[in-house]
Write a structure and sequence with these properties.
The structure holds two protein chains of two kinds.
Chain A: E1 4-7, E2 10-13, E3 19-25, E4 31-37, E5 43-50, E6 53-57, E7 64-70, E8 73-78, E9 87-94, E10 102-103, E11 107-111
Parallel strand pairs in A: 2-11
Antiparallel strand pairs in A: 1-3, 3-8, 4-5, 4-9, 5-6, 7-8, 9-10, 9-11
Chain B: E1 3-7, E2 10-14, E3 19-26, E4 32-38, E5 44-50, E6 56-58, E7 64-68, E8 73-78, E9 87-94, E10 100-102, E11 106-111
Parallel strand pairs in B: 2-11
Antiparallel strand pairs in B: 1-3, 3-8, 4-5, 4-9, 6-7, 7-8, 9-10, 9-11
Chain lengths: ~110, ~110
């Protein structure tokens, strides 16, 4: 069983569209994250949820809206997609702060 | 605030040679330090983690790292490189605030 699974793996869309990426973890972790990896491989945290509560929101445009319906799921909705949103988005989970992160395999978003 | 700097964006080694990846950290609190590896088109996997229990940390796949507080360093080594070690390596630091800050990454290529 995959520990952290995210869908879709690839997402190609036009500028201005709205899209969602889903993430689920079966590890029983309390904390989930969204990271963005740009074309230079740089990884930056976007959001973190602990027990369904938002605890980190790192100066991300409000076009990005995370939603955590329960501890095992953290979805990312993006409105009005822009060219600069093209990147690989990784979902991750951990038992808590300072703990090892388990990453999903990533969603490659291409905005045309 | 915590941050890491990885020295060298690209390292090329011969198969069987020593692998040395450099990481320096900055932290206002006792840091938790990590090395992650990313294989092509995959998410990140933990290689090892420093938690202050021991300054020399052994990880998976024959890697180890040494924490040196006086030098604020956490360099990663492997005595003998294997072709399967070709990947992207990330150093990361956490200060207990759920924010894992990653370095810019080092690409390792292994020559036969």
């Amino acid at each position: 069983d995959t520990a952290v699974s995210q869908t879709p793996k690839y997402l190609v869309t036009q500028m201005g569209n709205d899209k969602s990426i889903k993430c689920e973890q079966n590890l029983g972790h309390d904390t989930m994250y969204w990271y963005k990896q740009d074309s230079k491989k740089f990884l930056k945290i976007m959001f973190s949820y602990n027990n369904k509560e938002l605890i980190i929101n790192e100066t991300v445009p409000n076009r990005f809206s995370p939603k955590s319906p329960d501890k095992a799921h953290l979805n990312l909705h993006i409105n009005s997609l822009e060219l600069g949103d093209s990147a690989v988005y990784f979902c991750a989970s951990s038992r808590g702060s300072n703990e090892k992160l388990f990453f999903g395999s990533g969603t490659q978003l291409s905005v045309l | 605030a915590q941050s890491v700097t990885q020295l060298g964006s690209h390292v090329s080694v011969s198969e069987g040679a020593l692998v040395l990846l450099r990481c320096n950290y900055s932290s206002s609190v006792p840091p938790y330090l990590f090395w992650y590896v990313q294989y092509p088109n995959q998410g990140l996997q933990l290689l090892l983690k420093y938690t202050s229990a021991a300054t020399l940390v052994k990880g998976i796949n024959g890697f180890e790292a040494e924490f040196k507080k006086s030098e604020t360093s956490f360099h990663l080594t492997k005595p003998s490189a294997h072709m399967s070690d070709a990947a992207e390596y990330f150093c990361a630091v956490s200060g207990g605030d759920y924010k894992l800050s990653f370095g810019a990454g080092t690409t390792v290529t292994v020559r036969a």
